[in-house]
Write a structure and sequence with these properties.
heterodimer, A: 231 residues, alpha+beta, four-stranded mixed β-sheet, 11 helices, 9 strands, 42% helix, 19% strand, globular, B: five-stranded mixed β-sheet, 25 helices, 16 strands, 14% strand, disordered C terminus
Chain lengths: 231, 688
C-alpha cells in the first residue's frame, strides 16, 4: 500500500478555506468555484466561469509554472472593489515572465474592459516590472471543450492522490513509455500491483509537467489515449 | 421597355443591393397575392422603367408606385435594417398610428373616433406619461436621483407593491383634473374615461420594455427567468461531455405524510406521524442518471445529509434484502454502481450545488475537495434554472409515486388531491419504510428504463455501452484504495490543545465539545501538554476519533471518549445540540440558590447584631465594606444550623441548609439591601 507523503489529516486541515466568507463577498449573480490547484498547490476560490475555464486550462499548460488567484497586486492595479468582485490571476511562466489575467463576458454590455494599458490604470511601480496584462472572454475558449473536460478529469485525479507518494507509479509510467515509445492509458492502469487511481494521478502529473504528452485537445482522454514522451 | 430618369426615392446603394433586401417567405404566399405585383412595380421603378411601362405591366399607378418604393426603404427599428420587400405585404404597418384630427365623441360618449387619443395626450402632456410610467413600472422619479445610486435623502418615493390598473386610472384622472381638463376634454367625454386606453397603453409598455416591467409587474423570480430560454443562445461554458463529468446535488421536500414506527423497550410498536421529510439526490448530467440517494428525516437537511448523499454514491453498500428499502428492488440494484460494479468508488470532476446552508457548510466543501478532488460550483443566488435536470428528476420521482399516495400534501393547500394527509397516514398506516421503498423503486425505474432524455435508451444501457467503447472517454476513475478504507468524507477535523498537569499527575488528555478523550499513548506523553493536536472525529459517531500531532504529523492513533459518552452512539451534531440545549436550560433556571439565601440570612443577622445602639443607617452605609469579610466566613459555615438567639425556628436535623423563614422572605429577596439608596455617612462618626 502506498504510504502517505504527508499525514492526510494535517494536509486536509492546512488546506481548509472559509467557504462562508468567500460566498459572502461575491456578487449574487456570480458563479463561484472552489477547487484544488495541483499547479499552485493551493485551494482556490474562483469567481466566474471564464476565470475557472482559463485557470483549468492553465493547469495543462507546461510553460506555466504556477499561478496565484486574486494576487495582492490586483488591488493596487484595479482597486479593492474590482479585486473583491472579480477574479484575477498572476501567472508565472517557465521563462520568468509574469502575466496578470482578467476575465469578462463579451456579451455583457456593462462589463469593464479591463486592460491596464488602455485605461491607464498602471501604477508607476508596476510599469517597469514587465508585467503582461491579458484579458479572456468566452470567445477564447471556442473549440476547447474537450481539452477542458480532460483537464477537469486529470486535475481531479491528481487532487485525490495528493497525500500519497506516487514515485513508483511515475517511474513505471516513464519507463514504459520510454521503452515502447507510446503506451495506451489502459495498459498503464492495468499494470500489475499498481493502484489505478495513483497511476492515473501520475500520468496527469507527468502530462502537466510536459514530460509526457497526449492528444488532449481533439479526443476525450480515455483508455485508448496514447501516452508518449514529449519532444 | 423605355427607360425614365434615375429614381431618387431609392438611394443608389439600396438599388444595387435589391437582391438582398429583406423579404417575406414568398413560397408561402399564393400566386394571386398583390405582393408579387407590387414587388415587380418597385423593382421596375428602381431599374428606371417609366411609369407608363410600370402601369402597363403591373397595373400600379405612378403615385402608388412611389408610395410603395418609399415604404421599402423605411428603417425598421426592430431589425435595424430597411423594411425592404416586407413593406409590400398587404396590411403591413411600418409606422405607429399618429392622430392628427381633434378628438370628438358622440353625445352618448360611445367609443369610436378616439383612436390615438392617448398618444396625442402624452405628446401634449409628457409629464402625464412620465407619471403613469413611474407608477406602473415602479420607476424612480428624477428627484430621486440616478437609478444606479441610492435615492437622495428625503426624496425616496415609496411605490405600492403592484398598482392595479384601476387605481392607476384613478390617479391618472386626478392628475388630468389638476392640469385643468374639463368634462369636454378627452378622456372625460367618454364613458370609461380612458380606462381602456390606459390599460392598452400599460399592456404595450410591458411588451415593449419587458426588462423594466418584469420585476415591477411579475416579481423578482419572473425577472430572473428573463435569461432563460430567451434564444440568445448563451450556453453554459462548462458542459458534461461524458458520464461522471458534471454532477448535481440537491434536496427535495417530500410532500407525503407518513408514520415512523419506533419499537420501545418492550417490543411494542409506537407510531409517530412525520409531516415532511427530504430526499437527497446526486445525479449525473450525462446521461441523466441517479448516482446517490439519501433519505433525511431532519426538518431541514444538514451538512451530514449532504455528505451522506455523496457517500451513498461512492461507497458500495452491502445489501440486506430484508431492508424495506429494497422491497421493489430485490436484485439490490438501484444506483448506477449497483448496476455497473466496475464503477464502484467512481469519482466525478465537477459537482454543482445551490447556496443552501447545508451545502455551503465548512466540512461539506472542504471534505469534498479533499476526498473526491473535484471542483465545487455554487451558482448565482436563486438561479434554480442552472440545475434544471435535478429539479426534473425530482418531478419524475414525485409523479411516479409520491403524489399518488392517499397521504399526499399535493402541491399546496389548494391541491384537490390533498385530504387530511396526516390522518390518512395514520389510518392507512402509511409507513416511512413503505414510502422509502417506493422512492428507491422509482429511482431504480429512472435508472433502468428507457427514456427520451437518453434517446430512448436507459441510463444504465448508455453507460454500459460507453464502457464497452473505450473511445467514449468513460473509464473507471475510483478513489485510491487507501482512501477507500479510510474515507474522510464524513470526518470533522479540529485543532485542540493537550491538557493535563504533571505536577498534580493529571494525565494528558484533549477535550472536544466538553468531552475528554484519551488513549494510552497520549496519557504517557506529558511532553505533549500544551501542544496542538489535530483530531479527526467521525461525524456519525463521536466515539471514533483519531489524533495527529500538528507540528510533526505523528499519528497518535485512536482516542477514547470519557465513560459517559462511551456507551451510546451519538453524532457530532447531536452532541453539539445536547450541550447547547443543556446550557440554555441551565440559564433558564430561576430557582432560589440556597447558598445565596443562607449568606443573606447570616448577613442580616450580622447587621442586626452590629446595629444595636448604633445608627442603623450609618451601618447599612458601611454594609458593603463588611459584607465581603462576612461572606468569606459564611461560605465556610454555610451548612451549620443557625444559633438559637437569632429568633428563628430551629432547623430540622436533616436540612443541610437554612430554610427560608416566611417572615423574612420578603427581605431575603434583597438580602444585602442593594435595592435601597445608600445613606449618607458621617465620616467623622466612630463605628464599632
Amino acid at each position: 500500500m502506498n504510504k502517505a507523503s504527508t499525514n492526510p489529516i494535517t494536509h486536509h486541515f492546512n488546506q481548509q478555506i472559509d467557504v462562508h466568507a468567500a460566498l459572502k463577498q461575491r456578487n449574487s449573480k456570480t458563479n463561484v468555484w472552489f477547487c484544488d490547484s495541483p499547479k499552485s498547490g493551493k485551494r482556490c476560490i474562483i469567481k466566474g466561469d471564464i476565470a475557472f475555464y482559463a485557470l483549468k486550462l492553465a493547469e495543462g499548460e507546461p510553460t506555466i509554472v504556477d499561478y496565484e488567484v486574486d494576487p495582492l497586486c490586483a488591488v493596487d492595479i484595479y482597486g479593492l472593489n474590482y479585486a473583491q468582485q472579480k477574479t484575477t490571476a498572476l501567472v508565472n511562466y517557465s521563462d520568468g515572465r509574469q502575466a496578470l489575467w482578467t476575465f469578462y463576458w463579451s456579451t455583457n454590455p456593462h462589463a469593464q474592459v479591463v486592460n491596464a494599458h488602455k485605461t491607464g490604470h498602471i501604477l508607476p511601480q508596476w510599469a517597469g516590472k514587465g508585467l503582461v496584462f491579458k484579458t479572456f472572454t468566452e470567445k477564447d475558449f471556442k473549440g476547447r471543450e474537450i481539452e477542458l473536460d480532460n483537464w477537469l478529469l486529470l486535475t481531479a485525479a491528481i487532487n485525490r492522490a495528493q497525500t500519497y507518494i506516487t514515485y513508483q507509479e511515475e517511474q513505471i509510467c516513464q519507463n514504459q513509455v520510454a521503452y515502447f515509445g507510446s503506451v495506451a492509458l489502459e495498459n498503464l492502469l492495468n499494470y500489475p500491483e499498481v493502484d489505478p487511481a495513483l497511476m492515473l494521478a501520475s500520468v496527469g502529473k507527468l502530462l502537466q509537467k510536459g514530460i509526457l504528452t497526449a492528444d488532449l485537445k481533439n479526443d476525450l482522454f480515455g483508455l485508448t489515449t496514447e501516452i508518449k514522451v514529449a519532444p | 421597355m423605355s427607360r425614365g430618369p434615375r429614381r431618387k426615392l431609392i438611394p443608389p446603394s439600396y438599388q444595387e443591393t435589391m437582391a438582398i433586401w429583406p423579404r417575406p417567405d414568398e413560397a408561402s404566399l399564393s400566386n394571386e397575392d398583390p405582393y408579387f405585383n407590387r414587388k415587380k412595380a418597385v423593382t421596375m421603378y428602381a431599374m428606371g422603367a417609366s411609369h407608363n411601362d410600370i402601369q402597363a405591366e403591373t397595373g400600379v399607378r405612378d403615385k402608388e408606385c412611389r408610395r410603395l418604393a418609399g415604404r421599402c426603404v423605411q428603417y425598421c427599428p426592430t431589425t435595424g435594417q430597411i423594411y425592404g420587400f416586407t413593406a409590400l405585404i398587404h396590411g403591413k404597418r411600418i409606422k405607429s398610428y399618429e392622430r392628427s384630427r381633434p378628438i370628438t365623441t358622440n353625445d352618448n360618449g360611445q367609443l369610436g373616433g378616439c383612436s390615438g387619443a392617448m398618444t396625442m395626450l402624452f405628446e401634449r402632456y409628457p409629464e402625464v406619461q412620465i407619471f403613469v410610467d413611474e407608477l406602473f413600472l415602479k420607476k424612480r422619479s428624477k428627484d430621486e436621483g440616478n437609478a444606479n445610486e441610492k435615492p437622495m435623502k428625503g426624496k425616496r418615493k415609496v411605490h405600492e407593491a403592484r398598482i392595479p390598473i384601476q387605481n392607476l386610472h384613478g390617479l391618472f384622472i386626478g392628475m388630468l383634473r389638476e392640469l385643468g381638463f374639463t368634462d369636454e376634454d378627452w378622456p372625460f367625454n367618454t364613458a370609461n374615461r380612458g380606462y381602456n386606453a390606459l390599460r392598452n397603453y400599460c399592456k404595450a409598455l410591458r411588451e415593449n420594455d419587458p426588462d423594466s416591467a418584469m420585476q415591477a409587474r411579475s416579481g423578482i423570480q419572473a425577472k430572473q427567468r428573463s435569461g432563460v430560454g430567451n434564444g440568445k443562445g448563451r450556453e453554459s461554458l462548462i458542459q458534461a461531455l461524458r458520464p461522471y463529468s458534471v454532477v448535481q446535488l440537491d434536496f427535495h421536500k417530500v410532500d407525503a405524510a407518513c408514520t415512523i414506527v419506533i419499537e420501545n423497550a418492550y417490543g411494542v410498536d409506537l407510531e409517530l406521524p412525520v409531516a415532511r421529510w427530504h430526499i437527497g439526490m446526486l445525479i449525473d448530467e450525462q446521461p441523466k442518471s441517479i448516482l446517490g440517494l439519501y433519505i433525511s428525516l431532519e426538518k431541514t437537511p444538514s451538512a451530514d445529509c449532504v455528505l451522506e448523499t455523496i457517500e451513498s454514491a461512492l461507497r458500495p453498500e452491502s445489501i440486506e434484502l430484508a431492508d424495506p428499502r429494497w422491497k421493489f428492488a430485490q436484485d439490490g440494484k438501484v444506483l448506477i454502481y449497483q448496476f455497473v460494479p466496475q464503477l464502484e468508488w467512481q469519482c466525478f470532476s465537477v459537482i454543482k450545488m445551490d447556496n443552501a446552508w447545508s451545502n455551503v457548510a465548512h466540512d461539506v466543501v472542504n471534505n469534498i475537495l479533499s476526498t473526491v478532488g473535484c471542483a465545487v460550483n455554487f451558482g448565482p443566488v436563486r438561479a434554480w434554472w442552472r440545475r434544471p435536470l435535478i429539479e426534473r428528476m425530482f418531478g419524475c420521482l414525485e409523479s411516479i409515486g409520491l403524489k399518488r399516495l392517499p397521504s399526499t400534501y399535493g402541491s399546496g393547500v389548494t391541491d384537490t388531491r390533498r385530504d387530511d394527509p396526516q390522518g390518512q397516514a395514520v389510518e392507512h398506516k402509511i409507513r416511512l419504510s413503505d414510502v422509502v421503498a417506493q422512492i428507491f423503486g422509482a429511482a431504480k425505474s429512472l435508472n433502468s428504463k428507457p427514456g427520451e432524455g437518453v434517446f430512448w435508451a436507459s441510463p444504465v444501457q448508455a453507460i454500459e455501452a460507453m464502457l464497452a467503447r473505450p473511445r467514449s472517454g468513460l473509464f473507471a476513475t475510483p478513489l485510491p484504495k487507501a482512501a477507500q478504507q479510510d474515507l474522510m468524507l464524513m470526518k470533522h477535523i479540529e485543532e485542540v490543545v493537550v491538557r493535563g498537569d504533571i505536577d498534580k499527575n493529571r494525565t494528558p488528555y484533549i477535550k472536544s465539545d466538553r468531552c475528554e478523550y484519551r488513549n494510552e499513548r497520549l496519557s504517557r506523553s506529558y511532553s505533549l501538554i500544551g501542544k496542538k493536536l489535530l483530531i479527526y472525529i467521525d461525524r456519525r459517531d463521536i466515539r471514533i476519533v483519531s489524533a495527529v500531532i500538528k507540528d510533526t504529523g505523528e499519528n497518535l492513533g485512536m482516542l477514547h471518549p470519557e465513560m459517559k459518552w462511551r456507551k451510546t452512539r451519538c453524532t457530532w451534531r447531536m452532541r453539539k445540540w445536547l450541550n447547547r440545549s443543556g446550557f440554555a436550560n441551565k440559564y433558564k433556571d430561576e430557582s432560589v440558590d440556597p447558598i445565596n439565601q443562607c449568606m443573606g440570612e447570616t448577613a442580616e443577622k450580622l447587621i442586626q447584631k452590629n446595629t444595636k445602639g448604633t445608627d442603623k443607617k450609618a451601618v447599612k452605609g458601611m454594609h458593603s465594606a463588611t459584607q465581603s469579610l462576612a461572606l468569606a466566613k459564611m461560605v465556610v459555615n454555610a451548612t451549620k444550623p443557625l444559633p438559637a438567639e437569632t429568633h428563628q425556628d430551629p432547623l430540622p436535623e436533616t436540612a443541610p441548609v437554612a430554610a427560608p423563614n416566611p417572615v423574612t422572605r420578603k427581605r431575603l429577596a434583597d438580602p444585602f439591601n442593594l435595592g435601597s439608596q445608600p445613606s449618607r455617612i458621617n465620616p467623622n462618626r466612630e463605628i464599632d
